[in-house]
């Protein structure tokens, strides 16, 4: 029986170069093939013994379902094995080095996990009376104080759920501040070295977006930016450190120029781990900055969540921040400022972005991380992140072109280009070759300012031994790409699937699983 | 009919006060396999240098800018079902949109084929 590949969902990409004999099951020793749950389970079996539902009058009208829905049934061990097998085909930070640039895939200390699982944090409900969740509110408030302290800012909005949500929060604060003074400014300037989400956030809030070029050093072109400032410019969005892995040295001059022209400065703080404890964004004249708690303060992320993106705000923008927020009364009790009390305490708020108070699970982890590191530990986080990235940059710049290596030390990530590879060889081949070496590839083809970009972020949690092994692996793959080794063009050779047809997957995606019988009937 | 080029790798073929716009051979070769293209609808007003269309490849998503200002007459609907046309025939069947020019003097700032070739050679 071959239960796999009946649907076209997981196409076999061929076995070119495979010399080992095929197995009866399709498994490769302990690397198990796994079919979709729809293919291994049937509606005729079930793993649970449910009593018949009581006869009650349906109140669904014509929405009541009369057909079977055909959910697959499996026994408990079959279910456990299915998901455990799938998880073994995944790659995770707990399995190995994960140098995905711009994503800060670093070790998540287990202490954070222990704290987040305490019943007083894990089992609370956002609609509980505030008297019963004083500890949880204290955590939010304490974390807020730390974030303000670390950034040198005036206030913080804790509710945004991730980086881009935080960007939107900051931009909405700017919009509210402009509206409050009756100023119709409608342009947000975004440099080429900014995160890709920045222009999207500005456009979503109704601003038009204009690009500012980068210099040959990979930084914002200050002259071009100041030349564009004027009465129509609402603000700028700058990623610092930027996506070329560089610190924007002109940040204070940029802020001063933008403020002098009547605009506001948004900073994308996704890369705050490179400067935490060393630089306070408030000292650089920044008006709003989101902090990716799930990156800088180490909470498990990747695969789309969960995230948390509190936004620190300057004195000028704090009055416009979103509801709700926590406050500590004189008697030591915590309250939530929500719509009912906003008129008294926070009358200029632009409104609410989330149903409740933010990502509680991320707050507990971030506060555990901050308190267990302390001020000196956080400073060392930034120092080690920068040291590790520079070790990668300088160890590989002789074999891979590093377009901004002349711009001085990098910050938290090292950027390489595909210049110098053999004809027909690309960044993609290097990424696939790294999979064979047992690594999740680095970020590729981003940022766009570099041809065939490879962005490596080692983070501060990796040892020198880990970095040395990765450097050796990337050097070996890069040398094969420069020598034109044809076997690299068909990598990966050792992964559960060979090289996938990404073009076909994007042009003709198969998004819905269909029963094979239906497929046959349709033909 | 005359063909002009931009530094952002769009081409525009002008016929009187109407023109056809697409991306160049060089642009498609840099983008790699195109998997999605979004073209403007008829009637849309474009400003020279402003966003006009979107092109997505396996590597990146990019904006296609309007080489000149004008009003869109027609978007190339064929790209929706077959974005690979941009790879196979970027300067022919893979065109993005046709427009009526609002200011033909804007063409003066564009490059001719020889100047564009020299520009690409210098990249």
Q: What portion of residues of chain A belong to β-strands?
A: 5-15%
Q: Pick out the low-confidence regions of chain A.
A: 1-14
Number of strands of chain B: 9
Strand order of the largest sheet of chain A: 1-7-6-5-4-2-3
Mind telling me the CATH superfamily name of the domain at 133-366 in chain A? Type I PLP-dependent aspartate aminotransferase-like (Major domain)
How would you characterize this protein structure?
The complex is a heterodimer of chains A (523) and B (123). Chain A has 523 residues and is α/β, with parallel strands linked by helices. Chain A contains 17 helices and twelve strands. In chain A, the strands form three sheets. A seven-stranded mixed β-sheet of chain A has the order 1-7-6-5-4-2-3, sandwiched between helices. In chain A, strands 10-12-11 form a three-stranded antiparallel β-sheet. Chain A is globular. The two termini of chain A are 22 Å apart. Residues 1-14 of chain A have low confidence and may be disordered. Chain B is built from four helices and nine strands; from the N terminus they run βββαβββββααβα. In chain B, the strands form two sheets. Chain B has a six-stranded antiparallel β-sheet. Chain B has a three-stranded antiparallel β-sheet with strand order 4-6-7. Chain B has 123 residues and is an alpha+beta fold.
List the helices and strands and how they pair.
The complex is a heterodimer of chains A (523) and B (123).
Chain A: H1 37-40, H2 76-88, H3 110-116, H4 119-122, H5 134-151, E1 155-157, H6 163-180, E2 187-191, H7 197-204, E3 208-212, H8 222-228, E4 233-239, H9 251-260, E5 264-269, E6 288-291, H10 293-296, E7 311-313, E8 325-328, E9 334-337, H11 339-345, H12 360-396, E10 414-416, H13 427-436, E11 443-444, E12 454-456, H14 464-483, H15 486-489, H16 502-507, H17 516-522
Parallel strand pairs in A: 2-3, 2-4, 4-5, 5-6
Antiparallel strand pairs in A: 1-7, 6-7, 8-9, 10-12, 11-12
Helix pairs in contact in A: 3-12, 5-12, 6-7, 12-14, 13-14
Chain B: E1 2-5, E2 10-15, E3 18-23, H1 25-31, E4 34-38, E5 45-46, E6 51-57, E7 61-65, E8 70-75, H2 78-81, H3 85-88, E9 97-101, H4 113-121
Antiparallel strand pairs in B: 1-2, 2-3, 3-9, 4-6, 5-8, 6-7, 8-9
């Amino acid at each position: 029986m071959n239960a796999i590949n009946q649907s076209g969902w997981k196409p076999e990409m061929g076995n070119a170069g495979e010399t080992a004999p095929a197995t009866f099951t399709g498994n490769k020793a302990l690397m198990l093939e796994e079919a979709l749950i729809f293919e291994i389970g049937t509606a005729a079996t079930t793993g649970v013994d449910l009593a018949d539902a009581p006869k009650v009058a349906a109140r669904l009208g014509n929405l009541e379902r009369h057909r079977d829905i055909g959910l697959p049934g499996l026994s408990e061990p079959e279910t456990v094995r299915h998901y455990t097998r799938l998880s073994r085909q995944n790659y995770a930070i707990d399995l190995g080095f994960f140098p995905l640039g711009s994503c800060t895939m670093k070790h998540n200390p287990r202490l954070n996990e222990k704290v987040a699982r305490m019943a007083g944090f894990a089992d609370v409900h956002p609609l509980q009376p505030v008297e019963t969740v004083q500890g949880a509110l204290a955590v939010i408030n304490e974390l807020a104080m730390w974030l303000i302290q670390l950034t040198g800012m005036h206030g913080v909005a804790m509710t945004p759920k991730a980086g881009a949500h935080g960007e939107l929060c900051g931009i909405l604060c700017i919009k509210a501040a402009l509206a409050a003074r009756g100023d119709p400014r409608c342009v947000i300037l975004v440099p080429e070295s900014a995160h890709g989400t920045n222009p999207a956030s500005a456009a979503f809030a109704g601003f038009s977006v204009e690009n500012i070029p980068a210099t040959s050093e990979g930084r914002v072109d200050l002259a071009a930016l100041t030349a564009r400032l004027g009465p129509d410019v609402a603000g700028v969005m700058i990623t610092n450190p930027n996506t070329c892995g560089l610190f924007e040295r002109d940040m204070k001059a940029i802020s001063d120029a933008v403020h002098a022209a009547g605009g506001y400065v948004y900073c994308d703080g996704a890369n705050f781990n490179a400067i935490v404890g060393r630089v306070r964004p408030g000292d650089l004249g920044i008006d709003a900055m989101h902090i990716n708690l799930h990156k800088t303060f180490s909470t498990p992320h990747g695969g789309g969540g969960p995230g948390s993106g509190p936004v620190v705000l300057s004195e000028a923008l704090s009055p416009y921040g979103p509801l709700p927020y926590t406050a500590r009364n004189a008697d030591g009790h915590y309250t939530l400022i929500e719509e009912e009390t906003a008129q008294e305490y926070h009358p200029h708020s632009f409104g609410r972005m989330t149903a409740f108070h933010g990502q509680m699970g991320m707050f507990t982890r971030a506060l555990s991380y901050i308190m267990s590191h302390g001020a000196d530990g956080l400073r060392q986080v930034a120092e080690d992140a920068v040291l590790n990235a520079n070790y990668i940059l300088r160890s590989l710049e002789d074999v891979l072109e590093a377009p901004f290596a002349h711009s001085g030390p990098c910050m938290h990530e090292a950027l390489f280009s595909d210049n110098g590879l053999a004809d027909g060889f690309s960044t993609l081949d290097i990424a696939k070759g790294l999979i064979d070496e047992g690594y999740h590839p680095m970020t590729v083809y981003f940022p766009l300012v570099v041809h065939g970009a490879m962005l490596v972020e080692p983070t501060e949690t990796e040892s020198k031994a880990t970095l040395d092994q990765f450097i050796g692996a990337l050097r070996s793959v890069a040398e094969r790409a420069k020598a034109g080794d044809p076997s690299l063009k068909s990598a990966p050779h050792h992964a559960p699937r060979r090289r996938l047809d990404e073009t076909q997957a994007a042009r003709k995606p198969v998004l819905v699983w269909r029963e094979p019988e239906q497929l046959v009937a349709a033909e | 009919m005359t063909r002009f080029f931009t530094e952002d790798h769009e081409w525009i073929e002008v016929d009187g006060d109407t023109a056809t716009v697409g991306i160049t051979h060089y642009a498609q070769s840099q983008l790699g396999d195109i998997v999605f293209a979004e073209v403007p609808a008829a009637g849309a007003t474009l400003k020279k240098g402003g966003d006009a269309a979107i092109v997505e490849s396996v590597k990146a998503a990019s904006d296609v800018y309007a080489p000149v200002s004008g009003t869109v007459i027609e978007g190339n609907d064929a790209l929706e079902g077959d974005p690979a046309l941009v790879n196979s025939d970027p300067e022919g069947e893979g065109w993005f949109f046709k427009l009526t020019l609002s200011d033909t003097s804007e063409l003066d700032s564009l490059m001719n084929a020889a100047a564009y070739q020299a520009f690409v050679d210098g990249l």
